[in-house]
Specification:
The complex is a heterotrimer. Chain A is mainly α. Chain A is built from 9 helices and no strands. The longest helix of chain A is centred in the first third of the chain and has 23 residues. Chain B is an alpha+beta fold. Chain C folds into 2 domains: about 80 residues; about 110 residues, Cation efflux protein, cytoplasmic domain (Alpha-Beta Plaits). In chain C, the strands form 2 sheets. Chain C has a 3-stranded mixed sheet with strand order 3-4-5, with helices on one face. Chain C has a two-stranded antiparallel ribbon with strand order 1-2. Chain C is elongated. In chain C, about 35% of the residues are buried. Classes of the chains: A mainly alpha, B alpha+beta, C alpha+beta. Chains in contact: A-B, A-C, B-C. At the A-C interface, α1, α2, α3, α4 and α6 of A face α1, α3, α4, α5 and β3 of C. β4 of chain B pairs parallel with β2 of chain C.
């Protein structure tokens, strides 16, 4: 008796983030799983690019979601969730990088494109993305982090300054340098 | 000398009640969750999922947090669980408190 | 761009300025930029970079693939313990040594799952209003729902109210005087996605 006509998870796939967040705040783990499905890919991608490792990226994404569950009641609206996840994940990733690797702001990190490296497929679009990935990897770490946080994380300058513990003017400088570098090196693809 | 049942015996008795699906850790376990997921998953959740028996100067107090299904009404299942716990204590005169909370209806 | 500093164009504008200009959606329009061929070329280049960034994010998502079941399980297992119990809703028992309660959290998850049995209805939030911890005290249940836009609201709401009434009568001893249902959202595929 009382068996669902449609699987609950299927129905949850159609509803807004607001509804899922509200259910998750009330304790619904299926709704939270739905939110993970929607926002997980972007979070994992950013974490992987920041650390250069899919294993570390996935672990950081897990930690971020665990924290999110506990802090969800403080979120003001469902629409704010993705931004919260990206900022929170970034904070965890940068803390992790500082504690596991010595700071090397000036030198480009060796395998920074790491696990999200080039594909061998000669398709034009894939080749262009691969080139972008390589160019990103060659940037100095701070410049790359600024670019990732701005373009992939959607953070604003103040948030980036806060996360990287830099003055906002330095963030502008890093972003400008990163954009100029990428722009000149990607010239042939335009 | 009267011997109280063990927490394991009480937990087993509750699990056998028709309609009871799970026993959950007592709230003290949950009160201070670890900061990281990694630390949390290292705890032995199976061992923590049991009925709690506290034997004090005022007698024995048993607390159970249970999950039930919808094969019958949740109040009926909860009553049966409380009775299954009380039945494991031989001495009717010894002070006893039994607290059953249904924390999940699936 | 100048040879000495790739961030500055020969006209004097910097990539930084142009990025900010783009970020402001080119408003208010700056004639010194809008009439400068070098600036316009650079703006177009920066727009390309933004487009490629978005492609890279999507591509990353595809390359990473779906996370392992274990990854998801790790998160869900960790949060399962953090039960949001709420108040204790009493259940009577003749034996004075015995105290029985259904938690508010259990009742809310029951309400959500009953909502799932009513076609087109998804429960968003629910509140149990009144002194629910006192046996026999009048209690009101207030539920907010998302409704499939293709359903007519009145029968769906009535169906939900009936289903909730029955489930709460069976699984709680609450004295429910009213079940309020408010539609706060709609869901379902957009009309143009419908198969004809």
């Amino acid at each position: 008796m009382g068996e669902p006509v449609v699987e609950q998870e299927d129905v949850l796939a159609d509803v807004s983030d607001d509804v899922l967040v509200q259910r998750a705040v009330d304790g619904d783990t299926d709704a939270f799983a739905g939110l993970i499905g929607r926002h997980g890919p972007q979070l994992r991608a950013l974490m992987t690019r920041l650390t250069g490792s899919q294993a570390e990226g996935d672990q950081l994404a897990q930690e971020t979601f665990y924290q999110a569950w506990r802090e969800l009641p403080q979120l003001e609206e469902g629409a704010a969730l993705r931004g919260w996840l990206l900022r929170s994940g970034t904070r965890l990733a940068l803390t992790h990088l500082r504690s596991t690797r010595p700071s090397d702001d000036g030198r480009p990190a060796a395998a920074a494109s790491g696990d999200l490296a080039e594909a061998d497929v000669p398709d034009g679009r894939r080749a262009r993305l691969a080139a972008l990935s390589r160019v990103l990897g060659a940037l100095p770490e701070n410049d790359r982090h600024c670019w990732l946080l701005r373009e992939m994380g959607g953070l604003d300058y103040d948030e980036i300054a806060d996360q990287l513990q830099l003055p906002v003017t330095d963030v502008r400088g890093c972003l400008a340098r990163a954009r100029a570098s990428i722009y000149t090196r990607m010239e042939e693809w335009r | 000398m009267r011997q109280n049942p063990t927490e394991e015996e009480l937990t087993a008795a509750v699990r056998e009640v028709p309609g009871a699906t799970d026993v959950y850790p007592p709230p003290t376990v949950l009160a201070d969750p670890p900061e990281t997921l990694g630390a949390l998953l290292h705890r032995d959740l199976g061992a923590l999922s049991k009925v709690d028996l506290h034997d004090g100067p005022d007698g024995a107090e048993v607390t159970a947090r249970i999950g039930v299904d919808r094969s019958q009404g949740a109040p009926a299942t909860a009553r049966a669980a409380a009775e299954a716990i009380a039945a494991r204590f031989d001495d009717d005169d010894a002070p006893l408190r039994v607290i059953v909370r249904v924390t999940r209806i699936s | 761009m100048t040879a000495s500093d790739p961030r500055t164009l020969t006209c004097g504008k910097t990539i930084d300025e142009l990025s900010d200009y783009l970020a402001r959606d080119r408003r208010p329009p700056d004639p010194s930029i809008e009439t400068c061929p070098e600036c316009l070329n650079a703006l177009s280049g920066l727009e390309d970079l933004s487009a490629w960034s978005r492609e890279l994010i999507e591509d990353d998502g595809r390359q990473l693939g779906a996370p392992s079941a274990e990854w998801l399980r790790g998160i869900l297992d960790s949060i399962a313990l953090e039960v949001r119990s709420g108040r204790d809703l009493p259940v009577r028992h003749p034996d004075p040594r015995v105290t029985i309660a259904i938690t508010e959290g259990a009742v809310r998850s029951l309400i959500r799952s009953v909502g799932g049995t009513v076609p087109g209805v998804v429960i968003a939030g629910c509140r149990i209003e009144g002194d629910a911890e006192t046996p026999g005290a009048p209690v009101r249940v207030a539920v907010t729902v998302s409704l499939d836009w293709r359903m007519s609201a009145a029968p769906a709401i009535a169906g939900l109210r009936d289903a909730l009434g029955a489930a709460l009568a069976e699984h709680t001893e609450l004295e429910i005087v009213d079940i309020g249902v408010t539609v706060v959202d709609v869901h379902g595929s957009a009309p143009e996605e419908e198969q004809s």
